[in-house]
Amino acid sequence: EAGVTQSPTHLIKTRGQQATLRCSPISGHTSVYWYQQALGLGLQFLLWYDEGEERNRGNFPPRFSGRQFPNYSSELNVNALELEDSALYLCASSLAYSNQPQHFGDGTRLSIL
Amino acid sequence: GNSVTQMEGPVTLSEEAFLTINCTYTATGYPSLFWYVQYPGEGLQLLLKATKADDKGSNKGFEATYRKETTSFHLEKGSVQVSDSAVYFCALSDETSYDKVIFGPGTSLSVIP
After folding, report:
1. Does the CB of A43 have a partner CB in chain B at under 8 Å?
2. CA distance to B20, B21, B71, B93, per residue, from B74 (Å)
3. Taking CB atoms and an 8 Å cutoff, what residues of chain B touch A6?
4. What are phi and psi of B83, to 5 degrees?
5. Contacts of A27 (CB under 8 A, 6+ apart)
6. Low-confidence spans in chain B with pLDDT less than 70
7. pLDDT tens-digit profile of A59-111?
């Protein structure tokens, strides 16, 4: 079974630009989650999508947004990039039922110059 | 609200030493509990899980027992190896929240030969 895949692996941008990160969930998983992991810090919850709808959002500004497509893949968009957006962005997927574990991709390393 | 507390790291052990990483939680419902591991440069991997009180999750020599009376889920391994060097995250999913998984801050483990 293919795991969660994320692309690109690395992304280098400059301040003010826009970044798009992509995630393909495990087959059969309808929920997709996005997390930010800044260097030396834990996971910060960004967004949760299920069945194409945004279900919950973490404490991040509106320039962090995303969507989920009919095939359950997802995009995370970050507009007006700032230096502090430099981090590892992790995507996870799970079955839709409660108490299900999340399965993670290897992340996209976003570097802002 | 729900929360997860872990012992602070970093933890440094010699090879073959006994490992304990403490984890306690607060939850309003009946959570499922998880341990995830993150190796350098990778995403998180589910290490083990327990879904009800007194359940013991185990994998790759690691164990954790769901203790409802002490609201704890401590991770243990009898003999660590250098390859166990990673960051370990305790997490919970609560059926009453039907929401994102709540992660602890992570504990960094370094095993030296």
Report:
1. yes
2. 7, 6, 10, 16
3. 43
4. -70, -10
5. A1, A2
6. 95-100
7. 899 999 999 999 999 999 999 999 999 999 999 999 876 677 889 999 999 99
- Render pLDDT for B28-41 as a digit per residue (tens, 0 to 9): 878 899 999 999 88
User: Per the CB < 8 Å rule, is B43 touching A106?
Assistant: yes
Q: Do A90 and B95 touch (CB under 8 A)?
A: no
**Which among A61, A74, A81 has a CA at the least distance from the CA of A19?**
A81
Identify which of B91, B112, B113, B109 has the alpha carbon closest to the alpha carbon of residue B10: B109
Nearest Cα residue in chain B from A109: B41
Nearest CA in chain B to A33: B100
The one-letter amino acid at B75: L
> DSSP secondary-structure letter at A37?
E
Closest-CA residue in chain B for A10? B41
Q: For residues B22 and A50, give the distance between their C-alpha atoms in angstroms, rounded to a whole number.
A: 32
Q: What percent of chain B has pLDDT over 70?
A: 95
